Amino acid sequence: MNEFPVKRYARPTVISLVALTLAVALVAAACGSSVEAVRVGETSLDREGVATLVAEATGGPVDVEAVDAEAAAGVVDRYVRYEALSDLLAEHDVVIGAEARTAARDRLIAAGVDAGDPSLPRFIGWQAALDVVEEAGEGVRAAYDANAHLLAHDLCTSHILVANEDDARAVMHLLESGEDFAAMAGSISQDPGSGQAGGSLGCVGLGRFVPTFERAALGALAAGQTMVGPVPSEFGFHVIRIDEVHPVEPVAFDDLGPRLSAALLQIAGLTRTVEVDARFGVWDPVVGRVAPPAGPLAPALARLGS
User: Fold this and answer.
1) Per-residue confidence (pLDDT) for residue 4, from 0 to 100
2) Other CB atoms closer than 10 Å to residue 299's CB: what's the count?
3) Is 165 left (phi over 0), alpha (psi -120 to 50) or beta?
4) What CATH number belongs to 153-246?
5) Residue 281 and residue 86: Cα distance in Å, rounded?
6) What pLDDT sits at residue 2?
7) Residue 236 region, left (φ>0) first, then alpha (ψ -120 to 50), else beta?
8) DSSP strand E in 108-265: where?
9) Which residue pairs from 105-109 have beta carbons closer than 8 angstroms and sit at least 24 positions apart in sequence?
10) What are the boundaries of each domain within the chain?
11) What is the pLDDT of residue 20?
12) Which residues of the chain have pLDDT under 70?
């Protein structure tokens, strides 16, 4: 079984699915402020709840009225992704019991998580949910079977990889203004292999790209869009173009094997309703991400030579 947290990235052209941590965050109790800041399905988090998440992540006190926007976007993004899975599991009557939580706590402590870490209760919820998903019970099967059509695609894509988010936004702007995708991929993409082919990554099945790349491509397909970005990965930020639409038969639940966790997380992100207060980031339902506030385009355009 996987453990939380797990590094889960691979180069977009690598033909392997890196083990993906799936997790369910605990529902945050209302504290102090009653102003809703984040809603994921039936779960909500108030402004002080967001400040608490940022404080846990940064290790220091945080003023609810002066939360750093970029830090907030990062922790809210994680919360949204994990609560999306929580909401999906709850919809299909998957219950995370006390025994599962106890086992998850023991595993996390054994793996080196400090018993006094203020984030531990949340990590326990995530690990316990991951363990329950990997047990592949009837509720997990129902959640997959009801939504497997969303994953019934080969991904026929091209991409442009750049170093930072503002550069990716500038690339999107230039493409929307009529610049040629293949020419830009050849001149500025930091993936030289695909850049020499105009950015093309060909057509491959799910499980052969990093999770964030796959989620954004699936989101674009679901929304009927041909361009999506910025899409983060450990290699930088991608602008992805959908080149062809290749529907396929979804993988049967019993044949998913180690891909089950990844499939449930993708489905959760594609099917949950999410709302985020703009001071804590911008929810992009196509990319499946809470992004920080955008920077100015002019410096990024200058870096790209435009």
Assistant:
1) 40
2) 12
3) alpha
4) 3.10.50.40
5) 21
6) 55
7) left
8) 153-162, 200-204, 227-233, 236-247
9) 107/3, 108/3, 108/4
10) 1-152+258-296, 153-246
11) 33
12) 1-34
